[in-house]
Design a protein that fits this description.
seven-stranded parallel sheet, 36% helix, 15 helices, single chain, alpha/beta, elongated, 434 residues
Length: 434
């Protein structure tokens, strides 16, 4: 869950002899007591589990600091969930959906009939053994027609009345569609949005539920941050596909940390080496998802075509001749890849060090002592640009015995270079991303 404008705190818990640390965040539009763990639990996946196991799962979740629960699509979990939280209601925050209904067997259904939705909510309160829920959501509002229908049949007014009574503490909604989400935010009634967030959806490599462009999605997230609307995240691992090399749309398995790219503090950093460092330096001018800090390892930050000097460090005229061939022929082969004329034009027009200075971001810069493929001019100009920044940090001494790739033929030196590069980067990112 993401609450970018919230206060953060961490709590140490003892459970079964093991110490567990959970980070809690206060909902921006909430009260002092409304602090939720960054890890919540959705019950949809355990709806077919035996009741006694459901109770045990909930109790274990509570023991480990989880206090935020989504009950959508799992009607059979309500009774055991209610038993598990008996006597602990003040420690638990519940999210239910107006438009999700259940039959006598607890099977989920999608509904747009007011009487059925109202009847379901009253059943939920009774079965849970509570007289209020923390969040009442407009359920699965993916199209404008969905929102229009919920307003037309009186569900939104019903939620407003329940909030006035204290039976629903906060109004929210769930959606997959940025344009519809923005429309609901326009009402000014919402304190929480449930949205599908993962790298596959956010970078347009998902399925039909990954709706919206990169910019549309991140603009929505930034709006929530600005307006103090919490985000309850669904599908963070793309139904597990991102963790599988076989099924990941990126062609390889992602780590859990990579999947949670937009969570936590809401802060993101870029780390780049050589040409990757150049790209990281230029990224802030794109104006897409904002980054908080940059870590640059031996960036090829020469101005214009000087950024390609590593192709022929001893004869820059050869680089200029290669660029001329690309202009004439449309592309040119270099280092096993095709460089297009458009790419060469982009290089000519780019100045990563100016972009760094304009961004004003915290930047970590390292160069090794034996660069060889980057000129002294490039290194000097880049160091000057970073040193001019309020939070610019240049680290050189630890890498005097390394080459451009921070390696050495001496095994002990090689190991130390790797450890030092990791440590200085971790220290820098930790200080700016917390």
């Amino acid at each position: 869950m993401v609450y970018d404008n919230a206060t953060h705190e961490k709590t140490r818990l003892k459970t079964g002899g093991t110490e567990v640390i959970m980070e809690y965040r206060q909902l921006p539009h909430g009260t002092e007591r409304e602090k939720f763990g960054v890890l919540g639990l959705g019950l949809g996946g355990i709806g077919k589990t035996p009741a006694d196991e459901i109770e045990a799962i909930i109790r274990k979740a509570l023991d480990h600091g989880i206090n935020y629960f989504d009950l959508c699509t799992a009607g059979a979990t309500y009774a055991p969930f209610g038993r598990a939280i008996a006597g602990k209601r003040d420690r638990v925050f519940i999210q239910v959906h107006f438009g999700a209904v259940y039959d006598e067997n607890g099977e989920y259904g999608w509904c747009r009939d007011f009487d059925t939705i109202q009847k379901t909510f009253l059943w939920e309160l009774e079965t849970l053994g509570t007289d209020y829920v923390d969040f009442g959501f407009l359920h699965c509002v993916d199209e404008d027609a969905d929102f229009d229908k919920l307003v037309e049949i009186g569900v939104l007014d019903y939620l407003k009345a329940l909030k006035a009574q204290g039976t629903v503490r906060h109004i929210g909604f769930s959606s997959h569609t940025p344009s519809v989400a923005n429309r609901i935010l326009d009402t000014g009634l919402v304190d929480m949005m449930m949205f599908s967030i993962n790298p596959a959806y956010d970078f347009e490599k998902g399925d039909e539920w990954g709706i919206g462009s990169v910019k549309e999605r991140f603009d929505l997230f930034k709006r929530c941050k600005k307006e103090g609307v919490g985000i309850s995240v669904m599908k963070p691992f793309f139904a597990g596909q991102l963790l599988s090399a076989e099924h990941s749309p990126f062609g390889q398995a992602l780590s859990r940390t990579q999947c949670l790219h937009t969570y936590g503090t809401g802060k993101t950093a870029l780390v780049g080496h050589s040409m990757g460092g150049r790209l990281a330096s230029l990224y802030p001018q794109l104006g897409q998802y904002p980054v908080t800090a940059l870590a640059l390892w031996s960036p090829a930050n020469g101005t214009g075509l000087q950024g390609l000097e590593f192709l022929s460090i001893d004869n820059f005229a050869a680089v200029e001749e290669m660029a001329a061939r690309a202009d004439a022929e449309g592309s040119v082969a270099a280092w096993g890849v095709e460089l297009s004329a458009a790419y060469i034009d982009g290089m000519r027009d780019s100045d990563p060090n100016v972009t760094l200075q304009e961004s004003g971001l915290p930047v970590l810069l390292t160069y090794s002592g034996n660069e060889r493929i980057l000129s002294d001019t490039t290194q000097t100009e880049t160091k000057a640009a970073v040193e001019s920044l309020p939070d610019g940090q240049v680290v050189l001494d630890s890498f005097v015995n390394g080459d451009h790739n921070y390696t050495s033929e001496d095994p002990a030196t090689n190991t130390q270079l790797d450890a030092d590069l990791r440590q200085v980067t971790v220290d820098f990112l930790t200080s700016h991303l917390q």
